[in-house]
């Protein structure tokens, strides 16, 4: 079924046929990305490549399949960590040997190897940070320097998230963001192989730990003066993150400052030059830019283009937020949990077939708009990546330091400033 020349539904076999057009220069790149992303809910990637390979008779050239493979390895390189799909790739290499396609296949495999090697180095860094037992305390030099490091780490984590990971993640992956237990009973949806990467979960865990870290740093201070200084520092970090477009770090920090254990410290807040009104303004600014991202991905889905760069949101005028920031410092990192929520909603629509058994390609396109906008944008962000040493130091500190959970943070808060009469009633404190 078509609408305005675009496929909106169809049986799986017919949709697979659309992947390889009659001529190599007629590939619909939007359709290829959309279908390769969501079709894994119904057919495993190695099965799909095997069907495509067997559909081309031995005596015919594989130019169309090689063209598709080039797009596949570029947009979904992590699929090729699977031995089963690489068996089909070896057959393609053998059939293209001693033909004019040989060099093309060699080039795309070199590019694929570079992408997978980059991922392996990233995973090795994470493992090294987690296994290191050095619990040296971090010394925060200044709010702006910490914010700049957060921006670089955010970009490093975000750029490694593969688009297929939004399809493969557990339905309860966001529970930790909401402070609830993370169950793994539901598994991955649809007809999928076990997940081979964990970049999405790592990034969500980073965001959750950043939120806890800010509260822990504040509540472990001795005395109101030192505590108010640390609150001021984290408020400054959030402000700088907002100014350059790092809404993920800014939101995590602002949620921490707005949470009950920190927000109730009236004595501490009374010593600050920052005010609760300033934090409210910053929070609304972050939420407004999240709405803007949502609208832009919706526009991409309606227009059928998923590779457009996300425009920099306009800074809202405010007496509380300075707008003195160089345009070259912009990174524009959306709140990652919001992207995951949008993707999970769209994923449910993809799983639902029409009464005649057709797959919902229009739903595939909506999911591709959300996922494609995020992954392609983050791969193009020009902010520098962190040096291995500074990344390792902060990451190790966040992974290894003893962070109190939400309920323990409240108890620590009462140690800082005794509960009021109404709080004793609300929390059943004797």
Automatic annotation (TrEMBL):
Alphabetic keyword roster: Guanine-nucleotide releasing factor
GO MF terms held by the record: guanyl-nucleotide exchange factor activity
Stretch list, region Disordered: 177-196, 300-319
Residues in Ras-GEF domain copies: 142-419
Chain ranges of the N-terminal Ras-GEF domain: 3-117
Ranges of compositional bias, category Polar residues: 177-191
Record flagged with keyword Nuclease: no
One of the GO biological process terms: Ras protein signal transduction
A family per Pfam: RasGEF
Presence of keyword Signal: no
UniProt-recorded name of the protein: Ras-GEF domain-containing protein
Native source organism of the sequence: Lutzomyia longipalpis
